[in-house]
## 1
Amino acid sequence: MMLRPQPSSLAYVPFVSVENMMRLVNAIGVEPFIAGLAEYIEADFRRWPEFDKTPRVASHSPEGVIELMPTADAENYGFKYVNGHPKNMREGYQTVTAFGVLSSVGNGYPLLLSEMTLLTALRTAATSALVGRYLAPEGAEVMAMIGNGAQCEFQALAFRALCGITRLRLHDIDPAATRKAARNLRAQGFEIVECATAQAAVEGAQIITTCTADKQYATILSDNMVGAGVHLNAIGGDCPGKTELHADILRRAEIFVEYPPQTRIEGEIQQLAPDHPVTELWQVMRGEAPGRRDAKQITLFDSVGFAIEDFSALRFVQARIKGTEFFEPLDMLADPDDPRDLYGMLQRAK
Ligand code: NAD
């Protein structure tokens, strides 16, 4: 009996390692990858009612959080395991790491196991820029980016690919992070201004992205820093007790969210009354609710990251690895000749 399934076997699960994800993304190109991913995300948002939905299951500790993010449609089930530990970066680890699984609803077998650290950065950026297409002011060219860590470059590239942003104003409390992002993004052809303060970064920006990591109610932006007509893309406030915007900004903004039961616990709006009005993005994408209404409005995407975006990302990767070598067959399913003879299989392997 064969112990190691070969690629022809039905019992292997395609596994996309970090190395293969990098090969896949580089083969496609970061911006085309994000654009393709955004199409999958938008298509899934447009069929939102078809999904099983639940706020993610979070296990909190003083240092961070570990979360499981499940969802399913009639055909596939998906989940992501992801952490958020802002102190990791100071110790030489990623703040956010992740992996995920896509399965068949029909027989429950896993169909794909993938790294999702890179994929999370790509899908978060794709979602932000997709939302930007509905909410950013017309003709926006300049984006302020506050927080220049792991997510930063992906956000910039996504906003160029989907919204035409070419000029960036960068700020981070750690100047080394800004230097890193500036170097990476200048190499990609962006016009960059490195800013010593958040106040300087937002000057003249039509879009403001906040992607900082700090496990507290932080005030990255105060009310006076946000002028009329700006679109805010706030991705770093994504946990109870972890926010980036002063509550007064929220009161002036039209707020757009992924899944209210999760965002009310985790997003910027945890600072507001539980019945404060918000608009669900899937309704905007279906044309059932307005996006940006006028040039003066302040719009806010209170992003926390929802399971359907990961589901879309896994489906996108599943489609794109077909016919490539960017995966390995993983022996993670028992496959006895007689399904009831699991013990016999073990004995024959002696
Ligand atoms: P990271 O640790 O790599 O980078 C965070 C950066 O923020 C660091 O460079 C840090 O110096 C900077 N920073 C911290 N406090 C700041 C402040 N007051 N002003 C300016 N800069 C400040 O983290 P990352 O992987 O880039 O993630 C950024 C944030 O995005 C995290 O909070 C993470 O939880 C969140 N995130 C959200 C989603 C989502 O879907 N909404 C997805 C992934 C990550």
## 2
Amino acid sequence: MNFNVLTLFPEMFDAVKYSIVGRAIENNLININLINVRDFSKDKHKHVDDTPYGGGAGMVIRPDVVYDAYKSIKNYEKKKVIYLSPKGQVLNQKKAEQLAKEKDLILLCGHYEGIDERVLEKIVDEEISIGNYVLTGGELPAMVLIDSVSRYVEGVLSEDSTKEESFSNETNLLEYPQYTRPALFEGMEVPEVLTSGNHQEIEKWRKEQALAETKKKRPDLLKKCK
Ligand code: 4G4
């Protein structure tokens, strides 16, 4: 899967070269094509923004600069364009899974007061938010989207890990708690059932824990599933 990113701060995407997504890039399972919008500026000072018509604080990114950056992407007309914005539909697990079916995405990152509405009207297919809060730019949301979508790309994770976890398991419950060595940590032991070797009992305990965990930490999830 190929993520084309239109951004004023391509260096921020160095953050995704680590861990599982980093390995997926190395293994050519996913690719991130960074397009620096500033390279498409019209003036010698490399300006990309201007004052808003009608007045008001801050600066707005010019539509022509964004449009030229967009058109530099090969076969741009055929690729779904996502604008990361606080006005968007809030990203969830189902949406991440759906987006992983696309061969290509174009992620548009805004800054300052945003981007001129006309180019958004012209090129944006979907507006997505990563939650109800405001950030200085769309880069962190784009990286969050890349991470959540990449996990659904074939070969990125081990077989079973996307199926079992919170928010995508069939039960709609949070995951049960996990334990590893040492058996004794700061006076705290591991729940006995997990070292019993009784797999039926372990499964039963994990189901109970998942329900208890959800009741305690996210009761809203229980109400949502009827
Ligand atoms: C577009 C319009 C996304 C992008 C305005 C982006 C939060 C989210 C931005 C802005 C963002 C989110 C400058 C407010 C960049 N903030 N919740 N900021 N702003 O997904």
